[in-house]
Amino acid sequence: MAIRTRLIRSFVACGFIGAFIASSIFYFVVRYGYIRTTEDFLTKQSAVLKEQFAPYLTGADPARGMSLAKDVAQKTGFRVTLIDSSGKVVLDSHEDPAVMENHLGRPEVQEALKKGRGSSMRWSSTIGRSMLYVAFRVDSPDGVVGIFRLSVPLATLQEGVLAGLPWLLVGLGVSVVVSIIVALVEAARISRPLESMTRAARRMASGEFKEYHYPQADGEIAVLGATLNFLAASMGKLVRDLESSNRKFETVLQSSVSGMVLVGTDRRVVMANKACARILGESRESLEGLPYVRALRNTALIDLVSTTLETGKSQSAEVKILIPAEKIVYAYALPIESAGGREAILILHDITHVRRLETVRTDFVQNISHELKTPVTIIQGYAETLRDAPPEDPRAVKEMAALVAREAERLSELVRSLLELASIESGHLTLSLGEVDPASVVAEVVRRMTPLANKKGLTMVNSTSCERSSPLAGAVPEGGAGQPRSPRAPAAPITADRTLVERALTNLVDNAIKYTPGPGTVEVWAEDAAASGLGLGPGALFGVRDTGPGLADEDKERVFERFYRGSKDRSRETGGTGLGLSLVKHWVAAHGGRTWVESEEGRGSTFYIYLPATPTAATGTSDKP
């Protein structure tokens, strides 16, 4: 349908609807006013006539009353009804009272009995017409004697209202004619430039992007025309650019959300997303525009992209990236054929965590197998000896039995530690919280572990109340791991599970004793974490420093893993389950604390435990504070 036709229809429809609504409102207002005027007139007449008809409620001649009622009805056009207090019709100007039903339940009668006056508009079952009723209560010194009622047919009122209908229709017709004239004029003024713009838009849709002229356009329509011309110029350039870049972005959008690098035909990076910048350790801005050889800085990745650009075939490989940090990525290189030549997109999936988990799983299987194999072999060997060729010397038998018992206890301890670790990792650890004095925990652990240290030729030192001038002077080489930095501030009591705190500190001390050759020193202390200079919050910082062989960098990163030992050639000598530090990590994390280690090979190690003043959400572990 043409714009002009729609505009004409809209204008005419609006004019007709407006006129119809106005006429309807006028009709109902006039009708309402007419009814209210008639009701007021009936009220005034009733107030006068009820006094004339009141005697006929108290015994006056009914025939005279009926004659009077008909006379009033003939002169005024009103229907007169007289009703006694029981609802019986005494006389009526239009019907025989003897055949009329009781009127006590009529709305206007009920209202008049209650308020003295009542009115209603309803259908009359007596004469079969809609009526307007006004009723007045008639009182005497003895009380209510009846009701005097006047009524008039609503049809009479309707006739009065409809008398002005022809003039109303004339007004409605004039409004419609005026609306049509206005619609024709306005539709022509608006539709001509719009029709011209429609034709221009169709030509733009077919690819004709040029400037167009729109006659008779003014106001907002002129602005629309200028906008269409600007749109035509912009779309001309945009369509040309989109034709070239659409294939590139479509390939990118359909690829993985991992790191992405788009290499253009000039062998420079056109686009790099945030994930790629994070993997390569550069910002997106610094990567874009660089030759891809300089941007990637990895021979394997460069070879993938080069092969793809040369052959036009997809390439993939698992690649280790060493800068800025060691990562393992699975790289895809995909070719993109564009109008300017061949381009390539490189997609990088970071699978470092997956490979690390696989390594941990493999190490766990190997370590648990190793830990179980030795005691089982010993137990099996001695058991077979006792079964097949028992020694005659009772002392030899007793020694074999003792060895079997020791290895069995070691197996039992390993199983208990594994079960406890599994319970913790499944979230079943419950803390028995209470006030814990860090200094008393250190004192108790030192007291308990001193005999074990002395047996190995080591000195146990509780340096909680000492200055940070190291009591290990001469034991730890100058500049070694964990060198003191400032005087220690005493740690205030914290809220924690004392049993787990003692066990964690005991495990660290036990680990230090096992790996420190005698003569040597193991130092233990507690201090205020916030005053330690390590950027920690309120709480307690526990430290265990030894003069042992220290840890290599790769060992520091994994020392808290299950069964991981920093000195594998000494693992059998030191004994233990290989789960002690892993348990420490989980116990501390359950309090919302942290564990980490400072160490250098040949310079000893310092293990730290930080516990907040009040347990919070776990913050994990780290090799640095």
Architecture overview:
The chain is α+β, with helices and mostly antiparallel strands. It folds into 4 domains: 3-162, PAS domain (Beta-Lactamase, 2-Layer Sandwich); 257-350, Beta-Lactamase (2-Layer Sandwich), CATH 3.30.450.20; 356-425, Signal transduction histidine kinase, dimerisation/phosphotransfer (DHp) domain (Helix Hairpins); 434-612, 2-Layer Sandwich (Heat Shock Protein 90). It contains 17 helices and 17 strands. It has a 5-stranded antiparallel beta sheet with strand order 2-1-5-4-3. Strands 7-6-10-9-8 form a 5-stranded antiparallel beta sheet, sandwiched between helices. The chain has a 5-stranded mixed beta sheet with strand order 12-14-15-17-16. Strand 1 (79-84) and strand 2 form a beta hairpin. Helix 5 packs across helix 6 (219-254), helix 11 (352-388) packs antiparallel against helix 12 (394-425) and helix 13 packs parallel to helix 14. The two termini are 76 Å apart. Mean pLDDT is 80; it is low at 469-485, 568-572 and 618-625.
